[in-house]
Amino acid sequence: MKKQLSMVLAALMAASLVACGGASGEKKATEAESKANAESSGAEKSGLTWKIGGQGPLTGGAAVYGNAVVNGAEIAIDEINANGGINGYQIEYKKADDEHDQEKAINAYNSLKDWGMQFLVGPTTSAPAIAVGTEAEGDNMFLLSPSGSAVEVTAPKNVFRVCFSDPAQGTKSAEYIGSHNLGKKIGIIYDSSDVYSSGIHDSFVAEAPKQGLEVVADEQFTADSNKDFSTQLQKMKDSGAELVFLPFYYSEAALVLTQANTMGFKPTFFGCDGMDGILNVENFDVSLAEGLMLLTPFAADAKDDLTVNFVKNYKEKYKETPIQFAADAYDAVYAIKAAVEKAGLTPDQSVSDLGTAMEKAMTEISLDGLTGTGMKWNEAGDVDKEPKAVIIKDGAYVSAE
Amino acid sequence: MKNVQKNKIKDIFLNYGVILILYFVVQLFLKSGSVSSLMKGLLVPLCIYSILAISLNLVVGISGELSLGHAGFMCVGAFFSASCSMLLKGSSLPPMLIFFIALCIGAISAGFFGFLIGIPVLRLKGDYLAIVTLAFGEIIKNIINALYFGVDKNGWHFSLKDGTAVALGEGGKWIIKGAQGITGTPKYSNFTVGIILLLLSMLFIQHFIHSRTGRAVMAIRDNRIAAESIALPASKLKLLCFTISAAIAGIAGVLYAHNLSSLQALPKNFGYNQSIMILVFVVLGGIGNMRGSILAAVVLTLLPELLRSLNDYRMLIYAVVLIVMMLFTSAPGFIAFRENILHRLFRKEVNA
């Protein structure tokens, strides 16, 4: 009995495999056909569009980043479409969830590829970005990660990024703390099981002595023990740290701030761009974040036209204040636009040709965006721009200057 | 008696047959180019989870013990083999040979850890194995997250503190860089390799089950006292079974490590949840039923991806499907209903 049942089920599965395979095959065929038509007639040029994909964790622990990235990119794309698109072609946008997991990230990338994606604004987080970058190198698909900050992310030649790399963030943080005299005795808590956190930690510790900073306490936690920080905080308190550096993501940082408050420990807290998003944490008493500083290239209260406009549109559409990740993604889309225009590309070119042209064009553009003016990219795919710090005042991000 | 044996043999070959037929069907579609990239990307993970499911089924179904740390053995296999292929990457050896060596190392290392754990634990009766393997899975993940392993002219350097403690000389390279794990593992896994390994694991497990030793293990599972009374060495046989299972989980780890270019020990891929997921495959597929385990692994891996278009609702539907499947395979009412339907459908055959 069981045998027959499983045979039936196996057959069903095979059928489902075939079915999904078949469906996408047909789609591809029709796409190819429509492309061919467009090319032959030329008059149907308007039928062609750019297909830009967005990818990040839309569910799970890092969802704030992923959603910010896809929203930010969407705002930029809506603006560009309203102004006539890139080189006269409109943009289509599709987002995919990677759950901040390498395996899922590959699946998300592949599903976007099936859709016909030409450029990817993503992945949002480092580990998926490394995995997808290598996978995409084979296709020579152009990837512009808004916020994949690990050094290895830009190792494949087709991957560029908008944010700083982790070591750069650690070094810049130490420089900023040193030059602004925020404290001499530094305590650090970091997540040793996380690439982002340990990357920043290592470069910060290396840079601190050069800035006249003394690291008096250096404590770690892991992804399995990220709920109770009382031991680490007690050590910070005992060592007399004036400033506690928290180079990790906002969800743990919210717990650290809450627990420090119950202990009556009130140093200056300083974070990196992963801290951005702390004001959106559910059930978190925002008043605890008062005075928290973070190193991020974007502050929603900046007075330049570009930022004011972006924040207004974002608030209208998504009912919340944009964070740095949204700004990174917004800039990423405009960087793609600038590079495409520079190279004079059209959507009927193959993904691989577009990739090659983009890799060259990216190093030639200079972009004035939300996260910096005169942003330039080098051949390795890293960006050159000035860091800014932001402080939380009255429950909002304010420029620290 | 003869009839029973004939049925058994038919059963065994049916398992290989189903896998091979599926393989050729998929190959056919790959050749004709009508398989989506998403599906192509999922083929190797499907093999990985199938192998894991049958390896755990050997412990849970055949020896009657519970292991909650199979992701840990997978992790060991993955990291040992990936380190090995990283070390051999620059050499002049052909890729397939490197992969073969890595495969052996992955399987042996995972088997060795299984053996070490089994020695004290399998002497005990009760659920101790579950507790110890659960701890093992967590420990191994944390050790790897803290481990820095680099290589340069002067040899190998290890540190469990942080990266700065290892001063790599000129031309040195990192193999395991703490939480960042291994970056740049060569991609040796593909669908064919995955299917071959799945078939080999299946072959090995099925022959083990139907061998004298396998029958002895099952006898111990069913009644330890009776088995010991006819001088079967209970602890030894269980240890053998557990070690084989761990080694096969290690093989799945090798496939995993050589499928993605970066390998990190995250709670998501090698943590407790993954171990439970493998157990879910086994329980849903039917304890002791190899074909069922593979089926469950395939369905439960495909499902979230096929539901991708439903965005936020997909995990909800996934949970509902999980519950329905569980009822379908285990609830007495459903079993009766199922048998009834099947009986009607295949009545002719039964009569004949």
How would you describe this protein?
The complex is a heterodimer of chains A (401) and B (352). Chain A has 401 residues and is α/β, with parallel strands linked by helices. Chain A folds into two domains: 49-164 and 307-384, Response regulator (Rossmann fold); 167-296, Response regulator (Rossmann fold), CATH 3.40.50.2300. Chain A is 46% helix and 18% strand. Chain A has helices spanning 2-41, 63-82, 102-115, 126-139, 166-179, 195-207, 230-239, 250-263, 305-318, 324-343, 351-362; strands at residues 49-56, 90-97, 119-121, 142-145, 159-161, 185-191, 214-221, 243-246, 268-271, 293-295, 366-369, 372-377, 383-384, 389-393, 396-399. In chain A, strands 7-6-8-9-10-14-15 form a seven-stranded mixed beta sheet, sandwiched between helices. In chain A, strands 2-1-3-4-5 form a five-stranded parallel beta sheet. In chain A, helix 5 packs across helix 6 and helix 10 (324-343) crosses helix 11. The longest helix of chain A has 40 residues, at 2-41. Chain B has a single domain (13-306), classed as ABC transporter involved in vitamin B12 uptake, BtuC, CATH 1.10.3470. Helices cover 72% and strands 5% of the residues of chain B. The relative contact order of chain B is 0.16. The mean pLDDT of chain B is 88. Chain B: The chain crosses the membrane at residues 12-30, 42-62, 97-122, 128-151, 191-209, 237-257, 278-303, 315-337. Chain B: This is Branched-chain amino acid transport system permease protein.
Features:
heterodimer; A: 401 residues; alpha/beta; Rossmann fold; 2 domains; 7-stranded mixed beta sheet; 5-stranded parallel beta sheet; 11 helices; 15 strands; 46% helix; 18% strand; B: 352 residues; mainly alpha; ABC transporter involved in vitamin B12 uptake, BtuC; 3-stranded antiparallel beta sheet; two-stranded antiparallel ribbon; 5% strand
